[in-house]
Amino acid sequence: MRSEPNLCNKAHGSDRTGNWLVTCDHATNTVPDFVNGGTLGLPEDDMARHIAYDIGGQGVALALGTLLNAPVICSNFSRLVIDPNRGLDDPTLVMQLYDGTIIPGNRHLSDGERQARIDQLYQPYHDALGTLAARPGIAIVSVHSFTPQLNGYAPRPWEVGVLSAHDRRFADPLLNRLQGALSTPVGDNEPYGGHLPGDSIDQHALRHGRPNALLEVRQDLIHQADQQQKWAQIIAPHLEAARQDANL
Asked: Do the strands 97-98 and 101-102 form a parallel or antiparallel pair, or are they unpaired?
């Protein structure tokens, strides 16, 4: 998948007035033309896997933005090119191996090539995200998706997870709401831990005292557009209610 290098992000509904910002850091599997001519050397089947992007995440994020009257910002480059949900000093910023798959286009990355990805993709995305997050009263909801099972690991029982770091003002009420509404387990910092220093929530929420949560939805439940709409409709009322519960 290819994109032009200036299309580092897509902002939707920037003029919406709701007190939310919905983000999707891993929205697409596109590889800009300036990166190895638009390829990382992987077959299409691998670029269609979870290693390249969060399958279904963008559709859920866009639907939530409509339901919450909130702006939505989505990356428009694969996390295999550069991961916007990592700090610049994180060794996994540009992955060479992901879930058992070697990324040929990243194996011999020069310092100049790495910096070009930062300058043309990573930094513009965060600049745009920071501008949208700076409005007064904003709470940030970051939408991700997770694979039902990683290679060599047990199947994951959760349908949705709420991830959060030390600021649990919003995450705890949201977790309680979802646990009361769903008949399946809701992950509390599952299937991943809730904080990576320098990640998007750290940069744009924690450092500024903004209420936040990162939502993980299992990919097999949001593969199709109607499923994405369904899950957004499930989640949106609980976001609103949890915010009221937390007096935010």
From this structure: antiparallel
Mean of pLDDT values over 86-107: 94
Number of domains in the chain: 1
The whole-number pLDDT of residue 6 equals: 40
Q: What's the one-letter identity of residue 161?
A: G
* 27 within 8 A of 53, measured Cβ to Cβ: yes
Domain that holds residue 224: 2-245
| Rounded Cα–Cα distance for residues 180 and 245 (Å) | 14
Tokens 């709470």: give the residue: 139
**Backbone dihedral region of 155: left (phi > 0), alpha (psi from -120 to 50 degrees) or beta?**
beta
Residue with tokens 């992987």: 42
Question: With 0-12 CB in 10 A as exposed, 13-18 as middle and 19+ as buried, what is 9?
Answer: buried
Type of residue at 135 = R
pLDDT tens digits along 136-155 = 999 999 999 999 987 778 89
Domain CATH number, residue 143: 3.40.630.40
Look at residue 9 in the predicted model and tell me its pLDDT.
Answer: 66
